Amino acid sequence: MTANTLTVASLTAEAFAPYGDVIEPRGAPTKMINQGLCGRHDDLAKLDFADGRAGISLFDAQARGLPYMVDMVERHPLGSQAFMPLTPVRFLVVVAQDAGDRPGKITAFLTAPGQAINLHRGVWHGVLAPIGSPGLFAVVDRIGDGANLEEHWFDTPYVVDTLPA
Questions:
Q1: What is the pLDDT of residue 2?
Q2: C-beta separation of 108 from 15 below 8 A
Q3: Could you tell me the mean pLDDT of each successive run of 10 residues in the chain, 165 residues long?
Q4: What pTM did the predictor assign?
Q5: In whole angstroms, what is the distance from residue 94 CA to residue 11 CA?
Q6: Which long-range contacts (CB under 8 A, 24 or more apart) does 64-67 make?
Q7: Rounded to an integer, what distance in angstroms lies between the CA atom of residue 113 and that of residue 38?
Q8: Whole-angstrom Cα distance, residue 41 to residue 97?
Q9: Alpha carbons 155 and 147: distance in angstroms, whole number
Q10: What is the maximum span of the chain, computed from C-alpha positions, in angstroms?
């Protein structure tokens, strides 16, 4: 099968900004709480729902390895979606801007252990893909009625065969 090679970059807040938020501490805590023993980092992601409500779910994801095929992306037009690993696992984040109800240029990032992401509403993205070992993730997304899932299958898939160090 022929495939397009997809280059993967390390995840940074600046590079990921067109697609969503990187959820990680940035600098000193916003404030100290719990008798000064806990630093609070406030408002790290923009949750955005057309209707419905925010829900917290657990996703128990199987490990993925290389080469990794990206043959489909999906998006959620009615709500943002945040993925927060509860285990120290890296995961592959494949995203694309919308190009007229289709995914545009595909971009891929690799998280560092402890990094989490929030995908903005309507951003095309790959499936949850922990690399090297399985992962348990808390996911905050929209719970409600209505069609909140669109999929796009590629005629020619993309392949990830190397990762940044």
A1: 85
A2: no
A3: 92 98 94 96 95 97 97 98 97 96 97 96 98 97 96 97 93
A4: 0.94
A5: 11
A6: 64/92, 64/129, 64/130, 64/131, 65/131, 65/132, 66/131, 66/160, 66/161, 66/162, 66/163, 67/159, 67/160, 67/161
A7: 21
A8: 28
A9: 24
A10: 59
The one-letter amino acid at 132: G
Query: Rounded to 5 degrees, what are φ and ψ at 142?
Result: -75, 130
Q: What's the pLDDT at 121?
A: 97
Report the distance separating Cα 127 and Cα 20, nearest Å. 15
- DSSP conformational letter for 13: H
According to DSSP, the residues that pair with 130 across neighbouring strands are: 91
Distance CA 116, CA 140 (A): 11
Domains of the chain, earliest start first:
4-26+44-160 (2.60.120.480)
